[in-house]
Design goal:
Layout lengths: L1 H24 L3 H7 L6 H10 L9 H15 L4 H29 L21 H36 L1 E2 L2 E2 H15 L4 H9 L7 H9 L11 H10 L4 H12 L5 H11 L2 H28 L4
Antiparallel strand pairs: 1-2
Helix pairs in contact: 1-2, 2-12, 3-5, 3-13, 4-5, 4-10, 4-11, 6-12, 7-8, 8-9, 11-13, 12-13
Length: 303
Amino acid sequence: MHDLYQHASLLIGSASEYQPPMCMGFGCNAAGVISCRIIDSPRERLIAIITNNFVPCNGRFPTLIALSTIFIAGAAGSFGDVAAALSILTAIVLGISVTLLISRVLSRTILKGIPSSFALELSPYRKPQVGKVIIRSIFDRTLFVLGRALAVAAPAGLVIWFMSNVMIGDSSLLARCSQFLDPFGKLLGLDGTILMAFILGLPANEIVIPILIMNYTARSSILELESLEAMKQLFVDNGWTWLTAVCMMLFSLNHWPCATTLWTIGKETGSFKWTLVSFLVPAITGVIICLIVAQGARLLGLG
C-alpha cells in the first residue's frame, strides 16, 4: 500500500509540475519554455521543454481554425459549426496526448531517471504588488520574447523576399525549391509548396498560410486573400482534397518549433544538443503521423 501511494504521489507530482508550462504553451511556446523554470528536476525540465511544442500555440490556431472551417465544416452541411469546433477540440486533445506520449518515451530512453517527488505546500500570504507584477510581466516576459522574435523575423523576411524575387528561368527560386520537395510532400499527404511554407515559416507559425498563398499565386510578396471561400478555391485549384487539409492540420500541430522558441530553448538549456533534439523530436513525430495517415487513407481508397 505504501509503494502504491508513493507511486501515485510521483505521478500526481509530475503531472502538476507539467501543467503550468503546458498551459503557457497554448499562448506561446516560447513563454511555455520559460515557465519550465518552475520544475526543480533538470531531467523533467528538459522533458517539459522538448515536448512543449506539441501544445498548439496562438500562431497555429488560425491555421487549424481556417482549415477546419473551409474543409471540415463545409463537408458537414448544417452541422458544420459543430464539426469544426469538434475538429479543433480533437487537435487540442491530440496535442496533449502526443505531449504525454513523447514525455513517456523520452523518460524511458535518452532522459532516463527516477521521477522526482512532489510536495505541495502553501506559500506565505503577501499583499499583491500590482505595479511590480506589471513591470516584471512587461520587461521580463513580453519584451524578452518580442525582442527575440524581432531579431529572427528581420533576416527571415529578407530570405523570403530573396527567394520569391530571384528568378531561375521562368520560375522563382521559391517555386523551384517547392518543386524539389514535391515528391516527399506527396508521401505525407501534402505537397512541396506546403512543406516550403512550413520551412520559410520558421520565424513564426502565423506566416505559413500567407507564404503558401504567395507561392500558389506566384506573387513576389506575402499577401492575404479576401475571404475563406477564395482561399478554399485557391487550394482546391492546386490539388487540395480533404486528406491534404487533414494532413496540413496534423503537420501544423506536430512540426518543429518556431525560431523564437528554438532560441529560447537554447538560452534556457545552454545546449545546442538539446535545442537540436527539441527541433528533431516534433519534426520526426509530424512526419511519421502524416505518413501513416496519408498512406493509410490511400490504402483504404479514401484519399
